[in-house]
Write a structure and sequence with these properties.
329 residues; mainly alpha; two-stranded antiparallel sheet; 2 strands; globular; disordered C terminus
């Protein structure tokens, strides 16, 4: 059945995108580009956005099918809630942007409060209503050390889900970048889930992976459609949730290495400007800095970072497999 879920997710997205693109164009739902950004981006003004709707719809449909056949499908139900919740926040943000015809959607406060709300509901559904069982401790990679947080774990969940939701959003500024990195990430988490015996989570990762593969051909340079906040906020929220449900929270630092670097570049830029009046980078997030200094094929730079992240994660995978075997033994 896993093959069926993968094929269904792939086909739905691949078919929906060419249907949605002309619809978005007719409705003039095009991307607005920041004037201070790289001049090469100006030609992308008007490119249809909100393309994340296609793979999110694919994920919802395929997951509902999986819920019927998968035993112990509660993890999929919970992940589906997070997908829809963060996706809805992104959709509202995108809708405001395209209606106003500028690059300002929801205010930071509105977006932040909505994301916190989704994170708290996730905690209540999982730990209060016990839809799934996971530890309220943070597990340290490569060790058997776990830091118990008890109900303070809800603070960590909020930080993790909101933080990575926005991290993927920041990374989605180059054709195919966030999509490609997410494909790599969900591949890793699919493997980890099956190794740790979390079949339902593994199936959801496979659905995510193939839904994004169906979107990628339309999103790579030159992009015919952008995923928008609809897609990027959902992807980040899902990544954080999967790491939490697997009790492998800090694995996301390895898997989402580029997302972390992008976010840190923004934080460093803001801190430097406020403290010294000077900017570290020509523009943040850092992928815009690379573009402004004329770096060609900067995707190659991120491929190197991705390979490095993959190398580090292989060590983590070995540790996870050993831990699983010891636990089961």
């Amino acid at each position: 059945m896993i093959f069926v879920y993968a094929l269904l997710a792939l086909v739905i997205t691949f078919v929906l995108v060419p249907v949605l693109i002309p619809t978005l164009k007719r409705m003039k739902f095009g991307q607005s580009i920041r004037e201070e950004g790289p001049q090469s981006h100006m030609k992308k003004t008007g490119t249809p956005t909100m393309g994340g709707l296609t793979f999110l719809l694919s994920i919802v449909i395929t997951s509902l099918v999986a819920i019927i056949f998968v035993e112990q499908a509660n993890p999929i139900i919970l992940l589906l809630f997070v997908t829809i919740g963060f996706g809805l926040i992104g959709f509202i943000d995108d809708y405001i942007i395209v209606v106003k015809k500028n690059n300002q959607g929801l205010t930071s406060k509105q977006k932040f409060l909505a994301q916190i709300g989704i994170a708290i509901i996730f905690f209540v559904l999982s730990n209060v209503f016990h839809l799934v069982n996971f530890s309220t401790s943070i597990h340290i990679p490569f060790t058997n050390v776990a830091i118990p947080l008890s109900f303070a774990y809800v603070i960590f969940i909020v930080f993790w889900q909101v933080g990575f939701s926005n991290a993927v959003n920041l990374t989605d500024g180059l054709d195919g970048l966030a999509t490609g990195l997410s494909i790599i990430g969900f591949t890793m988490y699919a493997i980890m889930s099956f190794v740790l015996g979390e079949t339902a989570i593994g199936i959801f990762c496979i659905i995510m992976l193939f839904a994004l593969l169906g979107f990628l051909p339309y999103n790579i340079n030159p992009a015919k459609v952008f995923m928008g906040d609809t897609g990027s906020l959902a992807l980040g929220g899902i990544f954080a949730t999967i790491s939490i449900m697997l009790n492998q929270e800090l694995s996301l630092i390895f898997i989402g290495l580029v997302f972390v670097i992008e976010t840190l570049s923004v934080m460093l830029q803001v801190a430097s400007f406020k403290l010294t009046g000077k900017r570290i980078f020509k523009m943040s997030p850092i992928h815009h800095h690379f573009e402004l200094i004329g770096m060609e094929r900067m995707e190659s730079s991120y491929s190197i970072l991705g390979c490095w992240s993959d190398f580090r994660f292989n060590r983590f995978m070995d540790w996870s497999a050993l831990r699983c075997l010891i636990t089961q033994g």
